[in-house]
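Protocol step 4 of 5: obtain the predicted structure for the target chain.
Materials: sequence only (see below). No template structures provided, no constraints applied. The aim of this step is simply to have a reference model before the mutagenesis design in step 5. Sequence pasted as it appears in the construct record:
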Amino acid sequence: MELETVGDKYPGFLYRKQPRNVYWETTISCDLACQHCRASAIPHRDPAELTTEQGKALMRSVQELGSMLVLTGGDPLKRPDIAELIEYGRSLPIHVSITPSTTPLLRRETVDRFHELGVSAMGVSLDGPTAEIHDAFRNVPGTFDYSQKALQWAREYHIPVQVNTTITSQTLPHVKAMYELLRNEHAPPVRRWSLFLLVPVGRGSELHTPSADDVERLFEWVYSISDEAPFRVGTTEAPHYRRYWIQQKLAEGMSIEDIQGRARAMAFGIRDGNGVIFISHRGEVYPAGFLPYPLLGNVKEQPLDEIYRESDALHEIQDPHNYRGRCGRCEFKFSCGGSRARAYAMTGDPLGEDPLCAYQPDAAEA
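Step 4 output (structure tokens):
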């Protein structure tokens, strides 16, 4: 993967030529009504969704980019051609992962089919340690039980799982209990537990984000369990955890050179539009699913690889030299860069500062 290193003391990377992950919102249709849903998903499919052939053309672009493809929604299982699409993608070959909704559409034989097709990983959403908490967040009774079944089936068919937990003011108090549930009962097949810090868009705009200080305390806890956890504990839409990690390692005596040497393994620099790209169910290309601005193009009209590599607007968002506010002044901006999606959602400026970062670079320099 061709990368451009940026920054000096705490470097990151610019993904100018190829993103690491391409996220395709295969459909907006879903049988759940989750409180945080970015897409404000609906029960029925949109006639303007990419067709099967358009989806295959997108997959060929992903192959050209050399990226991995993540099939999202809505619920990808609402597409009757989803197995055909996975099979085609694997034949190219590209790595294909999928994040199905935990509804009656997800059955043991579905997970078995994922295994037969060579799906790289499956995403399972879990936002509470009990049915009462999780189902209330998802607005559909029985969702927690389906999540538990999905994890059991993934273990049965040896499919790696990423568990996704949305962090809001409502779910934050239950994070430690969630960890105990996953650690004690689901360590295999869970490979990664992703704590997704709410971006208030779609239906999620009605929810409350934790405070910046709450997030800092969450980072402290994540750091404290990271060595003992039987799976990787990561953050999504919270790149400032990298800033926290660097600060802790410096306090523990790690050298700048060793920190720089960990930059690639710690995914320094990956954020909305840099290392990831998003395609909507209608084919629109955006920097990320939670950053629907600017519109970069449409894969119905132009191949994704051309859009990604030739977009000046995308290149502007990728480069931390362009950031404003605290993010622009921060010495960690190349390794972190803040959530561009949250900056846009909460301030209207995709190049502005991330409101849920507690770090004050000016105070550090004083």
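Step 4 remarks: The mean pLDDT is 94. The chain is about 35% helix and 15% strand.
Proceed to step 5.
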